[in-house]
């Protein structure tokens, strides 16, 4: 999910094409008893993360390392040729996705409200940067809002931040350009947060490794930022939900556990909603000999995608806004996602 999202963030106006989609098998993994549920989830998981086209790839091997060769005596074991039910599901789910192409495409155009800084120099030289980045992505993915990555170069484009309330997560980005620090300092402090267990090193070096001088302005800027510790995803998600989510624009709808609808977006549920504007034609009958009149109007339709990644089924409700309730929210009919 993070890899597809990063590639989409680099060129959001271009379709994402995976020429070797390995959800059926890799060089070190096969499942000769793959379920249809797994295949269904795989298809929609990639669509949720912006994949537009793929070539389902299977590379045969005589035996499989590190498993004993006797476990897979033939190269076709665990391939499409021996998984008719999973293959059928793969084709049917993509036919359904094609039929719902306008919805899938609209969900892919939702502008992120949570951005994660991706610093190539930091990820290359400091593995804690990558660990923080992936931890932040996993925890933020279940907030019910769209998540994207922003590179140091993209950060210079001020038009990216002009439309709605957004937050940038800086995931222990250690080796960054001076222009990156300046761009972050130019934003209101409530729109920048840190995700790090080593605050003193974050933004502390230039890409060359030279120590960045800690000016009074930089020290003051860093001290004003909210710092999220890099902890296991459920705990980090809870921190994001309580302290980060209120800072971003609220989506038109989001997913919650039906048993506690006002507790906020539930961990393990991928959930994205948007509205689609479409033409609605109404027919008005006229008495007498006059022909009926047709009127064309624009109307909004709420659409979304919800995926349960939890190991157990979950009763899920969709929260939307309502003027008829004291807190402005209403939980729609609950469904069980397996």
Report on this model:
By secondary structure, this protein is an alpha/beta fold. The chain is 28% helix and 26% strand. It is built from nine helices and 15 strands. It has a five-stranded parallel sheet. Strand 7 (167-170), helix 7 (178-185) and strand 8 form a beta-alpha-beta unit. Helix 2 (36-48) packs parallel to helix 3 (84-99) and helix 6 crosses helix 9. It is globular and about 75 Å long. The two termini are 20 Å apart. Residues 324-328 have low confidence and may be disordered.
What is the string of SSEs from the N terminus onward?
A: HEEEHEHHEHHEEHEHEHEEEEEE
Count of alpha/pi helices: 9
| Alpha carbon gyration radius | 24 Å
- Return residue spans where pLDDT drops below 50 for at least 5 consecutive residues: 324-328
Mean pLDDT: 84
Number of strands: 15
Distance between the termini: 20 Å
Could you give the order of strands across the largest sheet? 6-5-7-8-9
Main sheet characteristics: 5 strands, parallel
| Relative helix content | 25-40%
**Strand fraction:** 25-35%
Overall structural class, as computed from helix and strand content, comes to alpha/beta
Shape: globular
Key traits:
single chain, 338 residues, alpha/beta, five-stranded parallel sheet, four-stranded antiparallel sheet, 9 helices, 26% strand, globular
Layout of helices and strands, plus pairs?
Elements: H1 2-10, E1 16-21, E2 25-26, E3 29-30, H2 36-48, E4 51-56, H3 84-99, H4 101-108, E5 114-118, H5 120-125, H6 127-140, E6 147-151, E7 167-170, H7 178-185, E8 192-195, H8 216-223, E9 226-228, H9 233-244, E10 253-257, E11 269-284, E12 293-308, E13 314-321, E14 329-331, E15 335-337
Parallel strand pairs: 1-4, 5-6, 5-7, 7-8, 8-9
Antiparallel strand pairs: 2-3, 10-13, 11-12, 13-14, 13-15
Helix pairs in contact: 2-3, 6-9
């Amino acid at each position: 999910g993070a890899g597809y999202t990063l590639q989409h963030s680099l060129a959001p106006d271009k379709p994402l094409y995976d020429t070797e989609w390995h959800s059926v098998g890799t060089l070190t993994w096969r499942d000769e008893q793959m379920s249809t549920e797994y295949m269904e989830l795989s298809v929609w998981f990639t669509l949720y993360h912006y994949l537009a086209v793929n070539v389902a790839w299977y590379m045969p091997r005589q035996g499989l390392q590190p498993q004993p060769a006797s476990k897979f005596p033939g190269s076709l074991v665990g391939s499409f040729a021996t998984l008719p039910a999973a293959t059928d599901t793969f084709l049917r789910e993509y036919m359904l996705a094609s039929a719902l192409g306008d919805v899938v495409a609209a969900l892919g155009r939702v502008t992120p409200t949570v951005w994660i800084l991706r610093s190539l120099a930091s990820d290359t030289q400091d593995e804690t940067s990558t660990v923080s980045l992936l931890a932040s992505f996993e925890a933020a993915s279940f907030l019910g809002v769209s998540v994207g990555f922003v590179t140091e170069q993209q950060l210079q484009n001020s038009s990216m931040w002009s439309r709605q309330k957004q937050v940038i997560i800086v995931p222990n980005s250690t080796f960054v350009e001076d222009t990156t620090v300046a761009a972050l300092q130019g934003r209101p402090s409530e729109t920048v947060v840190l995700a790090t267990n080593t605050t003193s090193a974050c933004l502390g070096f230039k890409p060359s490794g030279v120590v960045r001088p800690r000016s009074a302005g930089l020290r003051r800027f860093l001290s004003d930022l909210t710092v999220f510790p890099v902890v296991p995803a459920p705990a980090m998600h809870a921190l994001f939900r309580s302290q980060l989510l209120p800072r971003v624009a609220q989506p038109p709808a989001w997913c919650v556990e039906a048993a506690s609808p006002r507790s906020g977006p539930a961990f393990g549920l991928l959930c994205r909603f948007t509205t689609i504007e479409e033409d609605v034609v109404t027919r008005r009958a006229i008495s007498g000999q006059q022909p009926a009149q047709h009127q064309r109007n624009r109307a909004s339709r709420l659409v979304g995608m919800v995926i349960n990644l939890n190991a157990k089924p979950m009763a899920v409700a969709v929260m939307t806004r309502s003027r008829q309730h004291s807190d402005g929210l209403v939980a729609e009919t609950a469904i069980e996602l397996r």
